[in-house]
Every structure is written in structure tokens, then in C-alpha cells.
């Protein structure tokens, strides 16, 4: 199996090292793992691409490249330049430091990479590690994803639903904020929503008197609706959420025909 890995935390991020272990075990001795990841952290860029400027690509080691661009740029570089003519069988993105459950998924560069792969007809899975009081101080904060990542990806490849339509399925996987021994299992879950928990901004003055705004987050321990991704994560389960790039609100399309 040929696997392309990337992330949004940057090529030197510890989560990418965890993903490399997962991918190498999955690919096996006869397979290939190619890494094409952002040269610097690109958290929160979602599915952005560098449409108005070029991106520099640097070969760091055999099958390992750093791109001065977004995670989606990295997938484009991997598919259409570095691996041109020899596409991967699978794209893995992560392991993100922090959850990409609920509304976080909308902002996630980790998911942006998986989405871009799916738009190019490649199977893709985004993986993220939820943090909380039970795992944030562990010696290995990625313990849950390190131990359970390979089995989770393999199960999705063997038992997951994959489609060949225009907006193909990709998967958003979040590992719970617990030690590996505390993981209860894997659950299929819809994307949740944390009410009154969105991003905001906080103004600060620089030493020179210039005014800057820092984007602020919110506590991540509030569960979403029962059975949704963040809720099952906080209950100790790995969540797997099938997603598409299609943004149509299909549930109201028929009702909207009243405007015609």
C-alpha cells in the first residue's frame, strides 16, 4: 500500500511522528509512506489553498517533503507533483494535537487535507487527539491515538463505507481524552455542536501601542448532543464521522422549492 501523510501542525509536530508509525505499520514492509506536510504550523486554515501565490517545496529526506503552504496545498503537491503518475492508495492527515470534533471540524486544516484528497478520488482519514484532564499531563499525550490508531484506520478501511461519487466520503476520527487503557471502543457518530462555545477575539496593545486581536477559543469539555462526536469522545470512545465536501443543505432543498 502507498500512503501519503500530512497534517496541519507542521512537519516537525509530534503527532505527525505518531501518524508515521501508524502509516508504516499499515503499509507493511512492501509498502511506501510518503510525507508531504506544512513547513510551519497551519492550524485553523480549513480547506484553504495558496491560489494567489506559489509554494516552495523542500525535500527533507527520502519520501519526506516540507511545503510552505496549507495542508490542502500539501495534498495537491503530493498528488500532482511529488507522486504524479503514482497516486497513493490512502491519505492520512494528523494526528492533530487537539480535537477536531463538533464545530472545530469546520476550521480544521487536518480535515482540509482529507477533504482535498477525497475531492481527488483518494480515500482519506483525518485523525485528531482530544485533550482533557485525564491525558494532558501524560508522558505521551498521544497515547490513545498511538495505541489505537492502526486498528481504527484498518477497521475503517475494512468495514467503512467508501463511495466513488463526485463528493466522495472521507472520515473524521477523534481519539478520546483518556489514556490508551481508558478507550472503550469505536463509535460511528455525527458531527456535534457546542452551544455558546465559539471562537472570539481579544484585543491587546503591542509595546509600540499598536492594537492587535488574538483569536480566542473556549473550553472543550462541554459535551454536544448525545451520540455525537464530542459526546462519545468525552465518554471514552473513539469517534468516526463520515463527511463530504458537498455543502448543500439537502434536508431543506425540497422545502425551498417554494421560492421557484
Automatic annotation (TrEMBL):
E.C. no? 3.1.3.5
Q: Which domain of life is it from?
A: Bacteria
Q: How is the cofactor bound?
A: Binds 1 divalent metal cation per subunit.
Reactions mediated catalytically: a ribonucleoside 5'-phosphate + H2O = a ribonucleoside + phosphate
Where found in the cell?
Cytoplasm
The enzyme class is hydrolase
Q: Which Pfam families match?
A: SurE
A GO molecular function assigned to this protein is: 3'-nucleotidase activity
Which family does this protein fall into? Belongs to the SurE nucleotidase family.
Record's Gene3D superfamilies?
Survival protein SurE-like phosphatase/nucleotidase
This protein is called what? Answer: 5'-nucleotidase SurE
Keywords, alphabetical: Cytoplasm, Hydrolase, Metal-binding, Nucleotide-binding
Sites where the protein binds a divalent metal cation: 8-9, 43, 96
Amino acid at each position: 500500500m502507498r500512503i501519503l501523510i500530512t497534517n496541519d501542525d507542521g512537519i516537525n509536530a509530534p503527532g505527525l511522528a505518531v501518524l508515521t508509525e501508524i502509516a508504516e505499520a499499515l503499509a507493511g514492509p512492501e509498502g511506501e509512506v510518503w510525507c508531504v506536510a506544512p513547513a510551519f504550523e497551519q492550524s485553523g486554515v480549513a480547506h484553504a489553498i495558496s491560489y494567489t501565490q506559489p509554494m516552495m517545496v523542500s525535500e527533507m529526506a527520502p519520501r519526506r517533503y516540507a511545503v510552505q503552504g496549507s495542508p490542502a496545498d500539501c495534498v495537491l503537491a503530493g498528488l500532482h507533483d511529488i507522486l504524479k503518475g503514482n497516486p497513493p492508495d490512502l491519505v492520512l492527515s494528523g494526528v492533530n494535537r487537539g480535537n477536531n470534533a463538533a464545530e472545530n471540524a469546520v476550521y480544521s486544516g487536518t480535515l482540509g487535507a482529507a477533504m482535498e484528497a477525497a475531492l481527488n478520488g483518494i480515500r482519506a482519514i483525518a485523525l485528531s487527539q482530544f485533550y482533557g484532564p485525564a491525558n494532558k499531563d501524560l508522558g505521551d499525550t498521544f497515547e490513545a491515538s498511538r495505541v489505537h490508531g492502526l486498528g481504527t484506520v484498518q477497521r475503517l478501511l475494512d468495514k467503512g463505507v467508501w463511495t466513488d461519487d463526485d463528493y466522495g466520503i472521507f472520515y473524521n476520527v477523534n481519539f478520546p481524552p483518556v489514556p490508551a487503557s481508558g478507550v472503550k471502543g469505536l463509535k460511528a457518530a455525527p458531527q456535534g455542536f457546542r452551544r455558546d462555545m465559539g471562537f472570539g477575539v481579544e484585543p491587546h496593545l503591542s509595546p509600540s501601542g499598536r492594537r492587535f486581536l488574538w483569536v480566542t477559543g473556549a473550553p472543550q469539555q462541554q459535551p454536544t448532543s448525545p451520540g455525537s462526536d464530542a459526546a462519545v469522545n468525552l465518554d471514552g470512545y473513539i469517534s468516526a464521522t463520515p463527511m463530504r465536501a458537498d455543502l448543500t443543505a439537502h434536508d431543506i432543498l425540497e422545502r425551498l422549492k417554494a421560492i421557484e
